[in-house]
Amino acid sequence: MEFKKDYIIYILLAVIIVIGAVYISGTVFSLFDPQSSATGTLHNSTIVVKEKFIKSNPETGEDQYLIADTNNHVYMDIDNKNFNKTNSTDIYVQAEAGGTYNITTVGIRNSTLSEYPNIISLTKIS
Length: 126
Known about the structure:
By secondary structure, the protein is of the alpha+beta class. The chain has a domain of 88 residues: CATH 2.40.50.140. It has two helices and five strands; from the N terminus they run αβββαββ. It is elongated, with a radius of gyration of 21 Å.
């Protein structure tokens, strides 16, 4: 009888630890997900576009629009459900090399996962 009680307590403790580990790892990994609300802090800055390029992922077949500025920062331009951004192609086409823009970004640079801040909005400065 005593053995079964201890066994149940150990199982419950193991389940709680597993649930806690999954929650913590999900929170940590969501920090690097450009679609995540965990990266929800918006940053405003002014940039001069140096170049634009498209990075293809042969495994998924998806293309990623990237914009580099004259300070050698790279920004990605992908749709983002959390910020109701569905115009990434329009933003990419609007950005011209040599143009000065006010941008709003979300996310962080993560070189390990090859992630960049995502441009949420881009406005040309006259």
